[in-house]
Amino acid sequence: MTNSIDDISCAKRTIDREVESLRMMENSLDNSLSQALDMMQNAQGRVLVTGMGKSGHIGRKIAATLASTGTPSFFIHPAEASHGDLGMITEKDVVLAISNGGESKELSDILVYCKRYGIPLIAMTKNPNSSLGKAGDILLRLPDNGEACPLGLAPTSSTTATLVLGDVLAVCLMERKGFSQIDYKKRHPGGKLGAILQKVSDLMHTGEEIPLVNEAASMQEAMLTMTSKMLGCVGITDQNGHLIGIITDGDLRRCMSSDILTRKAVEVMTHNPKVIAPDVLAAEALQIMNNTGKGITQLFVTQDNKPIGIIHIHDCLRVGVA
Fold first, then answer.
1. Residue 63's CATH number
2. Are 48 and 73 in contact (CB under 8 A)?
3. pLDDT tens digit string along 93-104?
């Protein structure tokens, strides 16, 4: 039975071997990378990724990453392609075919199809003299220094290098296209990523939901508005519609007296309240609310100092912004 020292030693050897493969690939990068990126960026259709076995598993991830970062893409299984799915490939598409050794026989029908119809083909393989290496219009070469597997058989270093090269393609295309956080959000509306990328404007209350009174309002009117809108505050605006103050539940508790209903809202309000712009990420709004000494739970959303909405801390927490 091995001990933890043996395990850690094995782990370090594996990591070192895989890092070595990545360094080898890094040092061998050449103009073929830019040519492949040009081909993918200029495609009028989609980037179709294909591969068999472990290369296929990595290929699915590459296609998913491309699709989520602005390059329309999907994975096509080479065996299914031979039974009708070749019809998914159009002359406007680009095919990225992956095979470490370059001799996966299941790819042959796709290679022939690409040549027959003039479909651009990017070959990702370690062997430029293989069937895939010779068929590709552009060769993206994988490192050829064996596997981290002690038997030298199980795809380990090769699949890591393939995955990283796929990430290189996706990231370079993102930079070329100026792919932004907003673009990313459009493709990730759900889950934690979608929550993190929510903007204030996506969550804020607008229109009749905004608790507002003008500077001439009495505290009675302000309290009725605060109660009816149920957001724990009311904003006070001047004659030009500019936000000049806020009254919160906490302000009411601090100022409660027998004559409070006869006072003006401007006498009780907190001047120059913290506000936020509509295009700011909701995560930043939550941070402002959490980091304010008084522990505020809402922020008015303004443009040109005029309130256009209000966001409550519960709005952020409800969609998973934390």
1. 3.40.50.10490
2. yes
3. 999 999 999 999
